[in-house]
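can u pls check wat happens w/ 4'-deoxy-4'-aminopyridoxal-5'-phosphate
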Amino acid sequence: VFAHVVRAPEDPILGVTVAYNKDPSPVKLNLGVGAYRTEEGKPLVLNVVRKAEQQLVNDVSRVKEYLPIVGLAEFNKLSAKLILGADSPAIQENRVTTVQCLSGTGSLRVGGEFLARHYHERTIYIPLPTWGNHTKVFTLAGLSVKTYRYYDPASRGLNFQGLLEDLGSAPSGAIVLLHACAHNPTGVDPTLEQWEQIRQLIRSKALLPFFDSAYQGFASGSLDADAQPVRLFAADGGECLIAQSYAKNMGLYGERVGALSIVCKTADVASRVESQLKLVIRPMYSNPPIHGASIVATILRDRDLYNEWTIELKAMADRIISMRQQLFDALRARGTPGDWSHIIKQIGMFTFTGLNAEQVAFMTKEYHIYMTFDGRISMAGLSSRTVPHLTDAIHAAVTH
Ligand code: PMP
């Protein structure tokens, strides 16, 4: 009965790793997937995560019962505080409902399904380009996806004028997906002044902001600095949605731990919204897993562990920033044609190199370097040891 099923294409991002794994070359390099690697090219479990896990293991009173539909209450509270700030009026006024979801992706999906059921406008505007999964997540959630201009290939920076024009002509009430910081795949973020202009436009048109916060702390190394755009919107008293992921900033990728917060106008509305979120979640996966959320809660509630986390997080962010500098310096020293200053200007895990699909294919074939076809490289996958190999490959790709 399944003989007619045709083979689906590999996921454009995760498929890069599939191809990488099949390559027997000893010099192969995976710059596709957005996961942090150490200078030795190894995955990293944060010390603070190991400590928290040890505490959890040692606590024999812990059981494996189901969590409630909305997840671990303490985790939810601490997650809202992390993104909105400890002194957030919205939290103090109980206007925020937070539900634990399956990492960033699950938070986006639950938020999308809630909006499709209970919000009057079905169109969501996503930046062009954006993380490849956004379109599929929101379409399957029942929303209609449109794009707004974001990236300017000529300047390799923000197309701010285009962004304002496109959001300015969006229908009143439309949903707008915003990357809270460290835009994926471009590494290009608005300045705080530009964020303020975006906020004014969004509020004046009664658009609904939906923040995707997958990299808090990863952009600048500071959790508070990276949360500024979200806090700017929360401070004006208006509504917004926030999808948080702990995949990158706590290195909890496979634990699938994240949160969806919806900032409402009143506590009463927030509590009714939460009751409906439960109806979205219950038939989808019933309730979320307990382990990852317990790790996060253990770290966020304890001052010492929290401080230790911020230090380890900053070290990851700093290593990425240093990789940017090293790659830029190497390309300049090599005399590779082109202006590569965007490598050090862009923010977060990725550099949008400007290399085209043909050049990417060349680098994969000749140099065993794996990356997405849009020319995005994960700076976290690079090390001092591999910078020369990547430099050779880029040089050859742009001059051959
Ligand atoms: N949003 C963006 C912009 C991302 O880059 C990612 C991870 N690549 C996610 C959401 C979701 O990640 P996860 O589901 O692993 O938290």
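The two ends are 50 Å apart (CA to CA).
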